[in-house]
Specification:
Layout (H helix, E strand, L loop, with lengths): L2 E2 L1 E5 L6 H13 L3 E4 L8 H13 L2 E6 L14 H11 L4 E6 L1 H8 L13 H12 L3 E4 L2 H18 L5 E2 L8 H20 L8 E2 L15 E10 L4 E11 H8 L9 H15 L5 E4 L1 H13 L3 E6 L2 E6 L1 H11 L3
Parallel strand pairs: 2-3, 2-4, 4-5, 5-6
Antiparallel strand pairs: 1-7, 8-12, 9-10, 9-11, 12-13
Helix pairs in contact: 1-6, 2-3
Length: 333
C-alpha cells in the first residue's frame, strides 16, 4: 500500500539551514511529510516535552549533525539535539543519521558562517556525541546533494524493515463490503425495534434530488477548500490554510460514514476528524462553514448525495450513484 510517513528532522538550526531545507525538499519530493524544530523554541524547557510528543507521533526520526553541539539544557548538561536523538533511540523510533564530514564543516567555516559553523564551547561533548552517532546507522555528507540522495533511500529502507503506521488514501483500505453488510443488518434491526415501539417517524422533506445525467468524471474536478488552523508553538491561532483536492477524494473519505445517514453536524465533525489525522502538523483544524456548504451543494449537484430535512435537521444520504461509486472504490471486482 502507498503510505506517507512523517519524518522528524533534528539538527542545530542557525548553521544548518541549507541542510535542513534540502532534507525538507527531499522528504516532500519522496511523497512524505516533514516535521521539525522550527516550530519550537529550544531555550524553553517546556518545549522539549512538546518536541518529544512530535517525535512520538512521527514515523521516522532523522538527525543531521553538523559542526555544532547546539544549545545545552542546563539541567541535563546535554544539547537539545542530543536529547532528541537519545529519546528517539530509547523509544525504539526508526531513525537514521547524517553527519557532515570534516571537509564539509571546514567548507562551511570558510564561508559566511565563519567560526559559527564549528563548536567552540562544548568541544568534548560534541566529539563524544559525534562518536555516539557514528556508532549507529548513519551516512556522511559532503554536500547538500548527498542529503537529497540519502533521505529517500533511508525512508524506503526503514519502511521495508519496520511496520510503520503512516497514513494512506481511503481508496487503498481494505474492502468495506463486510462493514456495509453489518450496517445493513443493524439498520434493519433498528427499523424493527422502531416499529415495535410504535414511534412513527416524521416524513422527511427532500431538499435535493438529482435529475440530470450522472457523470462520474465530474467528481475529478479540483476543489479548493479553506481551513482554519492553529499552530500553538508559533502563536498562530485561526490561520488560514487552503486544501486542494478533488470531490472524488472527499467522497471516498466520508462515503462510508454516510451509510448510516447522519445529520449534517456529524458529517462536519467526521470530516474535521479526518483532516486532523491527515494533517497532524496542525494543533487544530476545521473547515470554514462557507467551504463546507459549497462542498455539500456540489456533492448533491453531482448526484452522489441526497439532502433531506428531518425534524429541522439536514440529513445526508448516499444516492444509488454514490453507493455504486463507493462500492467500486472500496470493493473493486
Amino acid at each position: 500500500m502507498d503510505k506517507k510517513y512523517q519524518v522528524f528532522i533534528s539538527s542545530t538550526f542557525t548553521d544548518m539551514k541549507a541542510e535542513r531545507q534540502a532534507a525538507v525538499e527531499a522528504i516532500l519530493n519522496a511523497g512524505h511529510i516533514p516535521a521539525g524544530m522550527e516550530l519550537f523554541s529550544a531555550s524553553d524547557k517546556k518545549q522539549i516535552e512538546v518536541i518529544k510528543g512530535w517525535i512520538d507521533r512521527s514515523d521516522i526520526f532523522m538527525l543531521i549533525l553538523g559542526g555544532r553541539y547546539g544549545s545545552v539544557d542546563p539541567e541535563s548538561g546535554k544539547s537539545y539535539i542530543q536529547q532528541e536523538y537519545e529519546y528517539a533511540v530509547a523509544r525504539g523510533k526508526p531513525f537514521f543519521a547524517l553527519y557532515l564530514t570534516e571537509a564539509a564543516i571546514a567548507k562551511k567555516a570558510a564561508g559566511e558562517l565563519g567560526l559559527k559553523a564549528t563548536e567552540r564551547d562544548d568541544t568534548k561533548a560534541y566529539i563524544a556525541f559525534r562518536d555516539q552517532v557514528k556508532n549507529r546507522l548513519c551516512a556522511e555528507v559532503e554536500d547538500v546533494k548527498d542529503i537529497k540522495i540519502n533521505v529517500p533511500n533511508s525512508i524506503r529502507d526503514l519502511a521495508a524493515a519496520n511496520k510503520l503506521e503512516g497514513w494512506m488514501r481511503a481508496s487503498n483500505v481494505e474492502s468495506l463490503a463486510p462493514l456495509m453488510d453489518q450496517l445493513a443488518s443493524l439498520r434493519a434491526e433498528n427499523a424493527r425495534l422502531a416499529d415495535e415501539l410504535n414511534k412513527p417517524k416524521a416524513e422527511a422533506t427532500m431538499l435535493s434530488r438529482f435529475t440530470g445525467d450522472f457523470s462520474e468524471k465530474s467528481l475529478d474536478a479540483e476543489v479548493k477548500l479553506h481551513l482554519e488552523v492553529d499552530i500553538l508553538a508559533q502563536g498562530m491561532i485561526g490561520a488560514r490554510h487552503q486544501w486542494v483536492t478533488t470531490y472524488r477524494e472527499i467522497l471516498t473519505m466520508i462515503g462510508p460514514s454516510l451509510l448510516s445517514e447522519p445529520f449534517e453536524a456529524s458529517v462536519h465533525a467526521y470530516l474535521g476528524k479526518l483532516l486532523r489525522e491527515r494533517m497532524p502538523h496542525f494543533d487544530s483544524i476545521k473547515m470554514l462553514e462557507s467551504s463546507f456548504q459549497e462542498l455539500k451543494m456540489k456533492l448533491a449537484g453531482f448526484g452522489v448525495v441526497n439532502l433531506t430535512s428531518d425534524d429541522r435537521k439536514i440529513r445526508w444520504t448516499l444516492t444509488e450513484n454514490g453507493k455504486s461509486l463507493l462500492v467500486k472504490v472500496h470493493a473493486p471486482l
